[in-house]
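Subgroup meeting minutes
Present: P.N., E.W., G.H.
Scribe: E.W.

1. P.N. recapped why we're keeping a running log of single-chain structure predictions: easier to compare across weeks, and new members can see raw inputs and outputs side by side.
2. G.H. added today's entry (67 aa).
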Amino acid sequence: STASEETRRIHYIKGILRNRLNYVPANIVQFLTKAVSDGIELDHLQEMALNASNWTCFRGYVEGALE
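Output recorded in log:
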């Protein structure tokens, strides 16, 4: 996939988080971009976004996936 496709997906995932969670940090795009560059696939990131009940939970999923 191209870089612009990746960027589009990252913003889509940001939207999922914003719609579902009470709190999303201002640097969410940087956080998601780093997660992808560290090796988490976009589909997995999106799945985690759809399953997280809050920011701490989502962040935990991402950190757990990176271990």
